[in-house]
Amino acid sequence: MPRRKGAPEVNAGSMADIAFLLLIFFLVTTTIETDAGLDRMLPPMEPPEEDVVIKQKNIFTVNINKNGQLLVEDELMDLKGLRSAAMAFLENGADGSCNYCGGRKDPASSDNPSKAIISLKNDRETKYSTYITVQNELVGAYNDLRNREAQKLFGRDFTEMESEYLNPETPSNVRDDLKDKVKRVQDMFPQKLSEAETSTN
């Protein structure tokens, strides 16, 4: 009686090659989304040569507690009023040296936009979404003032000019023209947004 043959074996020699090719395919074709961070310029490492004295009236303090409540200049404030309060502080112009400021010239508030600093402080338990919303309102105060001055000077919004200037696809001759305009408006209202150390209680 002839011997029965067993089931034919599958040649698995090329399975490793196929798996390797599939791995390469998925590595090449897969895109990984990355979170866009906050656009912030870090201060230089070296300390200033001389101590800078900052008057308390030139600091606009914004505190966020763990419940998301705002304490602005030691007073409770709703988020809706934060941007206008920050704008009033930035363009107060108490020392009279700012000829483009439309502020009240309150002697108890900031002297000049170049001296005005906004200090943002939050609790460790503050929600991230609340923190970002408050920060957006403060940056929005700077942008609104810059847009106003850019419209007066150049007939365009500052945010639009800055976006075009920072776009790498913008032709170099256009970027060169925008560079001085963007810097001029930035110098009128320099963004001095200080993030104070997080409180633990």
TrEMBL record:
GO CC term, one of those recorded: plasma membrane
GO biological process: protein transport
The keyword Ligase is annotated on this UniProt entry: no
Transmembrane segments: none
InterPro entries associated with the record: ExbD
Record membrane topology: Single-pass membrane protein; Single-pass type II membrane protein
GO molecular function per UniProt: transmembrane transporter activity
PANTHER family registered for this protein in UniProt: BIOPOLYMER TRANSPORT PROTEIN EXBD-RELATED, EXBD MEMBRANE COMPONENT OF PMF-DRIVEN MACROMOLECULE IMPORT SYSTEM
Similarity comment: Belongs to the ExbD/TolR family.
Protein name: Biopolymer transport protein ExbD
Lineage: Bacteria, Pseudomonadati, Bacteroidota, Flavobacteriia, Flavobacteriales
